[in-house]
Amino acid sequence: MAKLSPSLLSANFAELKSEIEKLEKGGADYLHLDVMDGNYVPNISFGTPIIKSIKKITTLPLDVHLMIDKPERYIKDFVDAGADIITVHGEATIHLHRVIQLIKSFGVKAGVSLNPSTNLNSLEYVIDDLDLILIMSVNPGFGGQSFIPAIKNKIKLTRELIDEKSLNIILEVDGGVKLDNVKEIVDLGADLIVVGSDIFKDSNLELRTSQFKTIISN
């Protein structure tokens, strides 16, 4: 049964506590936090102070996606802020294996994110150490983009790779996920679904969250 990780990038930060409470009531399983530095991706979002504040107001696991250059510089800071999962991009660091080991040394789950054009071969020498693989179905940096159809096969192939190796890895998908395509994404093998704008654009966050949960749980 797939789980839901709403992306707070699309939230109204003036009403963040209230919106998180509605997500919880709607059945969200995680909270997805996109950290952007304006270098690795052309946008700036938020950092450890926001994550630390969020940690104080929720019991949901914090699924932290670092879209930043040289993430190894800040791993401990994000762990201290309350991250339960930390996902990095292979292109953002010279020594990916070392970064994965650093994350895991703090008792936090380690993930690697694959951009739309990143080949699955990039996982070959690190996959046995991963807790999560995040497939980006849009180019990272901005919310509200459309799902890239070619990524469907990538999700399917990643699922097959995990299953062939009998690994306990969460397969997460992020980008352009909506009520009308989320079932297909789950059927392709996704375990964890990130949804941003298609939840937060709705005036009834709790209902919208529960609608997603109903679809991905069946």
Give structural notes.
The chain is α/β, with parallel strands linked by helices and 218 residues long. It has one domain: Aldolase class I (TIM Barrel), CATH 3.20.20.70. The protein contains eight helices and eight strands. An eight-stranded parallel sheet has the order 1-8-7-6-5-4-3-2. Helix 6 (182-187) links the parallel strand 7 and strand 8 (192-195). Helix 2 packs parallel to helix 3 (75-81). The N and C termini lie close together (7 Å).
Compile the SSE list and pairings.
Elements: E1 3-6, H1 16-26, E2 31-36, H2 48-55, E3 62-67, H3 75-81, E4 85-89, H4 96-105, E5 109-114, E6 132-136, H5 151-164, E7 170-174, H6 182-187, E8 192-195, H7 197-200, H8 205-217
Parallel strand pairs: 1-8, 2-3, 3-4, 4-5, 5-6, 6-7, 7-8
Question: What's the CATH topology label?
Answer: TIM Barrel
Mean pLDDT: 95
Q: Return the structural class.
A: alpha/beta
Head-to-tail CA distance between termini: 7 Å
Count of strand segments: 8
Strand content: 15-25%
What do we call the CATH homologous superfamily? Answer: Aldolase class I
